[in-house]
Structure formats: C-alpha cells, structure tokens
Amino acid sequence: MRGSRGILWTPRRAVSLCQMIEMHTQKIAWRVGLLGSVLHAGRSVNDLDIVIYPARVRSGHLINSAELKPVRSILESIGLSRRAGVEAVHEEWRKQGSSDEKYVEVWRYENKKIDIFFMR
Predict the structure, then answer these.
(1) What digits encode the pLDDT tens for the residues 74-105?
(2) Would 50 be classed as within a structural domain?
(3) Packing angle, helices 11-25 and 69-77, rounded to 10
(4) Is residue 55 part of a domain?
(5) What is the secondary structure of 23-53 as a DSSP string?
(6) Residue 44 three-state SS
(7) Is residue 45 a part of any domain in this protein?
C-alpha cells in the first residue's frame, strides 16, 4: 500500500523486520527496538524508526563508527542498504535548525526508508 510519501510501514512489517535483524545481531550481543510512528500511531507512510544498541556497555562508553562495522555488515547481508551516514543526517538537521546529536543513519529495505538510531 502506498502513502503520499512512500510505502506504508505497519506494525506487523516493522516487527517482522526487527525480529529478522535481531536474529542476527544477538549473535554479536546487539539488540533491536521499535520506535516512532509505527509504534505510537500504528503506521507510517514516511519511514520506520528503529534503535539498535549493544546488550552490554561500560559506563561512560560512547558509540564509535568502528564498532558499528559488524552491525552494518549484518544489515547489508539481510538486504538493507545505507543511504546516509550520521554526518549527512546531522548536516540536514542543521539546515532545518536542529542541534540534535543522536547517532542516526538512513537505510532502505525493500524500497522503504528506515531511520536507524544507534544507542549506547
């Protein structure tokens, strides 16, 4: 089903994708969660928001790009493709007047946009 700005994300599709991702990321001790409109409103015609985070972290530890390599490799191996890294996302946010510093990358899966929030 197509919305005005894209293909509709439903909770069923979102949970299925999150489960598929976590089936692989749990092997390297990373977890997956659902956020955003699909969770709160039950659908989204824009994008899917998910969070991927390590199961265990040291106090004060911050995510760095190098430790995301295995996670990115998993995402790519199951058919996701990265469209914009965190720098490009922040640059776009600055143009919109935001000073937000969340670690977010834009990905696509089956021609649908996904914002992936990496947390510590």
Answers:
(1) 999 999 999 988 888 889 989 999 988 888 99
(2) yes
(3) 120
(4) yes
(5) HHHGGGTEEEEEEHHHHHTS-BSS-EEEEEE
(6) strand
(7) yes
